[in-house]
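Structure tokens please, single chain.
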Amino acid sequence: MAEREVRLAHLSRKETLERAAAGAVGLLPVGSLEQHGDHLPIGTDAFLAEAVCLDAARRVSCDILVAPPLWTGFSPHHLRFGATVTLAGETFVALVRETAASVSRWLDPVVVVNGHGGNRGLLEALALEGGPRSSPASPATRSPFPISERAE
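Here you go.
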């Protein structure tokens, strides 16, 4: 039997809305496009956030839909190295808030999964703005960094 598609962008409108109505959970991977030295691609953080989401979606029993990753993050601390794209903090927060709010109009809850350390503080502030899960404008956020640190 074929695996059920979990990548949101690969589904039709009809299947997306049916699965959302049946209780699917949305995951929104967030990363960055920045230098990672000479040995890793500049999309590493976005790739890893998406990979974590896809792996989680395939391992759990509940239905999870993974949105395409947001690849622009908050990376002003990497600009001096080149090969980096950054957003202003308020722009990044607005991008995540508005994307999550738009998705949550038809798929709720939406959990933001962060793959870039520089995004962490802004995402934590966003999640606290109206209280945890008090509204679609304040999405739940998770970061694989603290999870992996606790697991070691």
